[in-house]
Amino acid sequence: MNKIKYCFASMLFLFGAMAFAQEEGETEKPREPGHVNQSKFKQLYEEFSTPNTYRSASGAPGPDYYQQRADYVMDIELDDKNAKIYGEETITYYNNSPDDLEFLWVQLDQNVRAKDSKSPLRNGNGVNFAYMAGDFAQTYVTEPFDGGFNIEFVKDANGKPLSYTINQTMMRLNIPQPLKSGEQISFSIKWWYNVPDHTVNRARSGFEYFAKDGNRAYVIAQFFPRMAVYSDVEGWQNHQFWGSGEFALPFGNYEVNITVPADHILDATGVLQNREQVFSKEMMKRYKQAKKSYDKPVLIVTQEEAEAAEKGFSDKKKTWKFKATNVRDYGFATSRKFVWDMQAVKIGGKDIMAVSLYPKEGNPLWEEQSTKAVVQTLKTYSKHTFDYPYHKAISVHAKNQGMEYPMICWNYGRPNEDGTYSDRTKYGMISVIIHEVGHNFFPMIVNSDERQWGWMDEGLDTFMQYLTEQEFGKNYPDVIAPNSKYPSRRGEAAKIVPYMAGDQSHISPIMSNPENVYQLGPNAYGKPATALNILRETVMGPELFDHAFKTYAQRWKFKHPTPEDFFRTMEDASAVDLDWYWRSWFYTTDYVDIGVKGVKKYYVSDKPTKQMEKYMADRNITEADLPPLVYLAEEDSEDYNPDLKGKAPTEVSQNLKEFMMDNLSAEERAQVQEPKYFYEITFDKPGGIPMPLIVEYTYADGTKEKVTYPPEIWRKNDAEVKRVLSSQKELVGIVVDPKAETADIDTANNSWPKKEEKSDFDKFKQNIKG
Ligand SMILES: [Zn+2]
Predict the structure, then answer these.
(1) How far is 171 from 515, CA to CA, in rounded Å?
(2) Is the pTM of this model over 0.70?
(3) Which residues neighbour 473 within 8 Å (Cβ) at sequence distance 6 or greater?
(4) Which residues sit with Cβ closer than 5 angstroms to ligand 1, an ion?
(5) Cα(429) to centroid of ligand 1, in Å?
(6) How many A from CA of 442 to the centre of ligand 1?
(7) Rounded to the nearest whole angstrom, what is the distance from the C-alpha of residue 519 to the centroid of ligand 1?
(8) DSSP one-letter string for 149-201
C-alpha cells in the first residue's frame, strides 16, 4: 500500500472510530456485576511458578541452578536359559543442592510388575469391547507374572547393611546421618528379577521368544535400581511409576559390565571398552571399514552369520564392558539372533556411528531403512538443537516396541514372513526410528521430567520428528511414493482436528500428568507437536521460532527444564508474547473455530447518515459546529442512494475534496487511487482459541489478496471482530484460513458467500459411485 493511499484511508476512518459508531436506539441495560480479568491475553502469572535464583524469568537456568548427580558402577549378568537378570551396583550420589537430605529415594520401576503391584487395580473402566490376547491371558487366565525386584542387600560404603523401606516402585534409604549439601555418599545394591516377555505385556523392557529357533532377543531397560531426581521444583520426585508416566532421572557416569552367553551380539549405552575381546577379527576389520563409511552401512554381523549363531546355544559366557559419561539412564540389547550394521555420520566435525541391530525377522526392511533413518535424525535434530554429543546412536528392532534410552532405542516395524511389507509398515518403522532416536535430544539430553510432563519430551520430539520425516522424504525420494512428501502421521494442523473437535469429557489439557489423561497419544504427542508446528509456520514464522527453540535446547541440554522454562524461553528469544498461545493450546481444551459471519457494503455519501442526524439532534448541534466530516452509507439502509455506487469518494464528498486540495500537492493528488467500494466484514470466533485471522479476499476481476490480522485482533472481543475493507474493485468472496493451517475444527463457516457444503449423505453417494 502506498503512503498517500494509506493517509487517505486513515483520515476517512478516524471519525468512524471516534464517536459516531454508536448503535442506534440504544436503551439503558440493567447494571451488570463486575468480573475478574477473563481475557485470553491475560498474563500467565497465576499459572507460571514465580521465577527465582534457580530458574530465571527469561526461561534460562538461574545463577543458583543446581542438579544432583548419580554415578553407577554395575556388574550385570543375564541368565538366558531362565530369563532372569542379576545385578550388583554401586551408586555414588552427589548432593549438589543447598539442602541437607535426611533420606534418599531410589526407583524400583520393575515393581510395577510385582505380584502385589497396585498398578492393575487403579483402573475403573469395566469390561472392554476387545482385549489384546496377551493382556486377557495375563489378567484373567494365567498366574500374574512375578516381575518385581528381589533386593538381596543394600550396603553402605563399608559393607554394612543400610536400612531401607520399599513403597511400591520407590525405595527410601534411611541413611544414618543427613547427606549434607555438597557431600557425596556411596552405597551398593544387589538385586535380581524375572525378565518379562515384552510382546505379551507391552513392557518397555524384556525379551521376545522366537519359537522356530528357540532363541530370545532381549531389550533391557529400567533394569536396575535408579536414583530419583531431587530438584528445586519437586524436592524428591515421588510420583510412583504406574506404567504410563515415564521417567525422571539425574545425569551421571556409568561403568557397566554385562555378562551374556558367549555367542550373543550386544550393544548398549556407552563406549565399548573391550572391543578386541568381544569382537572376532573379521568383525574388527568390518568395524574399521564402517567407521570410514559415510554413505552406507557396513555389516558387522551378516544375516548369514546371525542365522548360523541361532543354532549355537553356547554355555560359555562373555562380558561386554562399557563406560558412559553424562547420561541419565542405561539400556542394552542382546541376542545371538542379531544382524548388526553401522555407518559413520559427520555432525559438527565429529564422527558419530549410526547403528542398527535386528533379527533376520526384520529383513529386508531393516537392512534397507533403519540406519538411514538414524542418520537423518542425527542431522535434522542437531541442526535445530545442538550437535549430537554422544559417539553413537543405535536402533534395535523389537516387535511392537517404541522406546528410548541414551544412545539406544527399540523400534517396531516387521515385514511379513515372506519378506513383503506394506507402505504402512515401512513408514511406521521409519517414523518410529526417527522418533525414538530423536528422544536422545528430548528427554535424554534436554532432561525434562517425563513422570510429571509427558508432553515435554513426547510433544517436542514428535514436532522434531515431523521436520525430520519431511527432510527424509526430500533426501530419499526413492523411499517414498513418487512426487509426494513423506506421509507424516502427526504434525500438520488438519491431522489434530478430529481430536480437538472430540468429546470434551474425554480430552485433557496438555498441561496434565500423563497418568491422568484420557488419550495419551493425541494429548502428549499429537497436540503439542501440532501446536508447535502451527506456532512455527503460522504464528511466529520459522526464523523466530527456530532461533527460540534452539535457544531452549542450548540452555537446557544436560539440565532439567520445566514447562515454564520452555514457555518463557520461547518468548524471551523471539520478542513474541505467547502467553495467549500457551494458555489456550496448553492449559485448556479449547479448540480453533473462526469464521466469516457477514458483509455489509458501504459507499461515501455527501449527506449525514440517519445515525449522525440523531447524534446532532441529541446534542442540539449542526454540521457547522463540527469539523468537516465524511459519511459512509450502507447499501441496505435508508441512508443509501443508488447514485453513490461505484463513485470516487472525492466526487461525492465536498469535505473530502477540500481536505485533499488543502493538504496534498497536485502531484500527490495525481497519484491517489481512490477506493470505490467499502465493506464492513464481521468475523466470528465460536472456538475458544484466539488465532491469527488469515483471510483471502477475492475481487470481481478474479484477483486475490491474502491478509493476516494478528491474533491480538481478538484481545478486546473474543467472540466477534469487524474489519473495514476499502477497494477499487468489487469484493466477491472471502475465505478464512484458506490453507487450513490453524486446525479450524469447523470450516462450514469459513466462506462468504457461504459455500454449499455437500451433506454427508451426498458425499457418501459420491464415494459409492467412485
Ligand atoms: Zn516418544
Answers:
(1) 21
(2) yes
(3) 479, 480, 484, 485, 486
(4) 458
(5) 14
(6) 9
(7) 14
(8) -EEEEEEETTS-B--EEEETTEEEE--SS-B-TT-EEEEEEEEEEEPPBHHHH
- pLDDT, residue 680, reads 98
User: In 359-479, at which residue ranges do the beta strands (DSSP E only) sit?
Assistant: 392-397, 402-405, 408-411
Please tell me the distance between residue 408's alpha carbon and the centre of ligand 1 in angstroms.
Answer: 13
* Band of pLDDT at residue 7, cut at 50, 70 and 90: very low
Rounded to whole angstroms, the Cα distance separating 327 from 308 reads: 35
By the 8 A CB rule, do 404 and 440 touch? Answer: yes
Give 627 Cα–ligand 1 centroid separation in angstroms.
66
Return the bridge partners of 102, or none: none
Tens digits of residue pLDDT in 450-462? 999 999 999 999 9
- The four Cα atoms 204, 205, 208, 209 give a dihedral, to 10 degrees, of -140
What's the gap in Å between 189 CA and the centre of ligand 1?
30
CA 404 to ligand 1 centroid distance, Å = 7
CA of 94 to the centre of ligand 1 (A): 29
**How much distance in Å is there from the Cα of 451 to the middle of ligand 1?**
13
| Gap from CA of 459 to ligand 1 centroid (Å) | 8
CA distance 49 to 101: 24
Distance separating alpha carbons of residues 426 and 750, to the nearest angstrom? 37
User: Could you tell me the distance, in angstroms and rounded to a whole number, from the CA of residue 244 to the centre of ligand 1?
Assistant: 12
- Using the mean position of ligand 1's atoms as its centre, give its distance from the Cα of residue 542 in Å: 24
Distance in Å, CA 361 to ligand 1 centroid: 24
Angle between helix axes 542-556 and 365-384 (nearest 10 degrees) is 90
Per-residue DSSP letter, 115:
T
Q: Kindly give, in sequence order, each residue whose CB lies less than 8 Å from that of residue 246, ignoring residues fewer than 6 positions away.
A: 450, 451, 454, 457, 514
How far is residue 751 from each of residues 197, 602, 757, 760, measured CA to CA in Å?
55, 20, 11, 19
Span 203-231, average pLDDT: 96
Phi-psi category of residue 182: left, alpha or beta, with phi > 0 → left and psi -120 to 50 → alpha? left
Q: Which of 110, 325, 146 is nearest to 224 (CA)?
A: 110
Angle at alpha carbon of residue 638, lines to 635 and 643, rounded to 5°? 55
pLDDT of residue 759: 54
**Nearest residue to 253 via CA among 332, 185, 327:** 327
- CA 403 / ligand 1 centre spacing (Å): 7
Q: Measure the CA–CA gap between 418 and 416, rounded to whole angstroms.
A: 5
CB-based contacts of 489, cutoff 8 Å, min separation 6: 427, 431, 495
Give the residue-averaged pLDDT of 403-432.
Answer: 97
> Cis link prior to 443 (omega < 30° from 0)?
yes
pLDDT at 345 over 50: yes
- Cβ burial of 366 (10 Å; 0-12, 13-18, 19+) is buried
Which residue in 375, 383, 377, 384 sits closest to 353, CA to CA?
375
Cα of 464 to ligand 1 centre, how many Å? 11
Q: How many CB atoms lie within 10 A of CB 331?
A: 25
- Residues facing 170 on adjacent strands: 107, 167
Amino acid letter at 176? P
Enumerate the β-bridge partners of residue 566.
none
